[in-house]
Request: fold
Amino acid sequence: MDIADLQARLDCVAQGWTPQQRLHIGNVAWAYARGDGGTAPDVALTWGSPLHGFADIWLPGTAALHLTPGLPAHQVATVVDEILAVAPRVTLKASLQHAELVRALKQRGFRRCDGPWFAQLWRSLTDLQERPVPDGYTIRQVRPDELPARVDVHRRCWQPARIKQMLNLPVTGDEGDSSYSLDKHLAVIGTPPYRGELDLVAEAPDGTLAAYGLGWLDPRSKSVLFEPVGTAPDHADRGLARALCTEILRAARELGATQAVVGPRGDDAYPMPRRLYEGLRMREVGQVVSFTNR
Reply:
C-alpha cells in the first residue's frame, strides 16, 4: 500500500465517522506504519471509487474490514461474500453497533467468539479536568533530536514479556524484544494525520524519557484518538499516563478537536487501560467483538 492508497483509506474512514465505528483515521495510519506489530496482508480488497470499504486478509483466515456507515444491506452482504470467496473460514472484528454487518455475518453462519473484546470509549472536550504532573516530571512534545529515545521508551513499555505479565500469561524467557523501531516511527511521522503537537513524552527527573502518548486528530470529525500510550516499567503507577492523556486532550482541543475516542480491551482479562480512560471521564458508546465461521 502506497501513500495514495493510505489517503484513500483515511478518506473512507473519515467519511461519516461516528464514535461507534471500529476504525478512526489514527488506527489506519498506525497500522500502515506497522506500529501495531502487524504484517502486510496476503490479500487486500477495496470497494467503490471513492472507497466505501476495504479489507485486509491474512490467510488462511483472519480479516480486518471497514465499511462506511449507512451502506445498504445488499452492499454489505456482497462485501462479506467477497471476503468469504478469498477466505472461506475466517475471523474478523465488527462493531455491534454496525447492525447491517452483524446481520450479514450471522446470516452466513458467523458466531461471536469467546474471549477478548474492545470497548469504544468517548468523551467531549468541554470541561477538561486538570491532572497534576508527578513531582520532578515534565510533559512536553518530543523533540526531533531525540527520536531514538522516543523509540526506546516505546520499546521498554511494550516488551513482549511485560505484555504477557499484564495479561497474566506465563513468561518463558524467549519472548524477544519489541518490534518497534526507528524506521517504524519515521513511517508514523510520515503519515498524513501525524501531528508533532500530539506526540508527547514524560521526561523523568534524570532527563530520560519515562512515558509517552500519541494522539491522532481527524479535523473532519474534530475527533482525537489515543494510540498508543505507554509508561516504562520503572516509572509505573505514578499517574504519568493520565497526565499525558490530559495534555493530549488539551492540545487537541487547541487544534480544533471537540471529542475524543479510544478503543481499549473491554473484558476483565486486561482492565488497566480501560480504567485509565474511564478515569478521564470517557464512557462506553460501542463494543467491537470478533465473529468467526470456523
User: Anything to note?
Assistant: The radius of gyration is 19 Å.
